[in-house]
Specification:
The chain is of the alpha/beta class. The protein has 3 domains: about 170 residues, AICAR transformylase, duplication domain (Cytidine Deaminase, domain 2, 3-Layer(aba) Sandwich), CATH 3.40.140.20; about 140 residues, Cytidine Deaminase, domain 2 (3-Layer(aba) Sandwich), CATH 3.40.140; about 45 residues, Orthogonal Bundle (Helix Hairpins), CATH 1.10.287. Helix content is about 35%, strand content about 20%. It contains 14 helices and 15 strands. A 6-stranded mixed sheet has the order 3-8-7-6-4-5. A 5-stranded mixed sheet has the order 12-11-13-14-15, sandwiched between helices. A two-stranded antiparallel sheet has the order 1-2. The longest helix is centred in the first third of the chain and has 21 residues.
């Protein structure tokens, strides 16, 4: 039986004590199986759980998310990985179940941001997924259940301090939610809007054909936005998030950030990156940093010296032209925005990153200009009429 209240180590910061999590009626829908979760852990776990549960319900596939500071660094469903994708995700040596494939994609999209993440799984955590989690730097995991072998592995992580939460999959919150800010209580209906394929039926551009795979990615990207700090833009491809731009004050900065991260995901699959030979003893997390530096256009002298020490033989770095040539082959990427585009600048930037399908609420005085930009690039744009701010 779960308690109705748990005492937490502290709030958002160590000086914010006391802290607790509780429900006013009944029992908490979460059970702590290992470790001691903190305030931010619970924010990540509860938001991430909603995301993966909704993805699974919408697409009928196991789903996983990698959360950092109450926004997804990555999210994905169980689409098999190609050899290049497995190598880019650092899982070429592992046997992957469908759920493990989903987490490999979620973690692999932005490995730099996923360092120290919170993991959410939509289905029972199996041993293959646990083995993948154990080898990564992570704070905790939430799932509806755990296979005994998987739980034993996770309970040994970080000398038994790794946080493992079991979520009651039957739990349904009240329709009204409240929060306090500076002693003032705000109240609203919970965002229980269902997102499915029908949301993308209003296609206003000259090109209107959306194949099944792109439709799946539109659902994925838009559900991800529902649980991402606004303003936000999400790019997706082949069943996974490839880039998220979260918490920016301008729409175009969201797009630039998301598109840059998406570019890095595809560049990680460049033969030159997959062929990098790291020096002995270079940890997985250090390899992430080394690849990030390898793909930068310019390094400081200190960065260059630190970077060179990570390789057996210092590799020739990709030139801007070589990167542009590789990225020019990327296509059929999906972009979803949590609010309308006030200008066409986001579309112009998205086109450089292989975006073919766009979803946005519409409602700007510049909707026609944005539509014309999509037409110029041969994109399909869907007006959903659904704003998805999340704060």
């Amino acid at each position: 039986m779960s308690p109705s209240e748990l005492t937490l180590r502290y709030g958002m910061n160590p000086h914010q004590k006391p802290a607790r999590v509780f429900v006013e009626r009944g029992e908490l829908p979460i059970e702590v199986l290992s470790g001691r979760p903190g305030y931010i852990n619970l924010l990540d776990a509860l938001n991430a759980w909603q995301l993966v549960r909704e993805l699974d319900e919408a697409l009928g596939l196991p789903a996983a998310a990698s959360f950092k500071h109450v926004s997804p660094a990555g999210a994905a469903v169980a689409v098999p990985l190609s050899a290049e994708e497995r190598a880019a995700c650092f899982v070429e040596d592992m046997a992957l179940s469908p759920l493990a494939s989903a987490y490999a994609r979620a973690r692999g999209a932005d490995r730099l941001s996923s360092f120290g993440d919170w993991v959410a799984l939509s289905r029972t955590c199996d041993e293959a997924t646990a083995r993948l989690i154990v080898r990564e730097v992570s704070d905790g995991v939430v799932a509806p259940d755990f296979e005994p072998a998987a739980l034993r592995l996770l309970q040994k992580k970080r000398q038994g301090e790794y946080r493992v939460l079991r979520m009651d999959p039957t739990y349904a919150p009240e329709p009204i939610e409240r929060r306090q800010v500076y002693g003032v209580t705000l109240e609203q209906r919970r965002n229980d809007q269902v997102i499915g394929e029908a949301l993308f039926a209003n296609r206003v551009t000259e090109s209107r054909d959306v194949p099944e795979g792109a439709l799946q990615d539109l659902v994925l990207a838009t559900i991800v936005l529902k649980y991402t700090q606004s303003n936000s833009v999400c790019l997706a491809h082949h069943g996974q998030v490839t880039g998220v731009g979260a918490g920016q004050q301008s729409r175009v900065h969201c797009t630039r950030l998301a598109a840059h991260k998406s570019d890095l995901w595809f560049l990680r699959q460049h033969p030159a990156v997959l062929g990098l030979e790291f020096a002995d003893g270079v940890a997985r997390s250090e390899r992430n940093n080394a690849i990030d530096l390898y793909l930068m256009d310019a390094l400081s002298l200190a960065e260059q010296a630190a970077w060179e020490r990570m390789f057996k033989v210092v590799p020739k770095r990709l030139s801007p032209d070589e990167k542009r040539d590789w990225l020019s082959r990327v296509s059929d990427v999906v972009l979803s925005s949590d609010a309308f585009f006030p200008f066409r600048d986001s579309i112009d930037r998205a086109a450089e990153s292989g975006v073919k399908y766009v979803a946005q609420p519409g409602g700007s005085v510049n909707d026609e200009n944005v539509e014309q930009a999509c037409n110029a690039y041969g994109m399909v744009m869907c007006l959903t009429g659904l704003r998805l701010f999340h704060h």
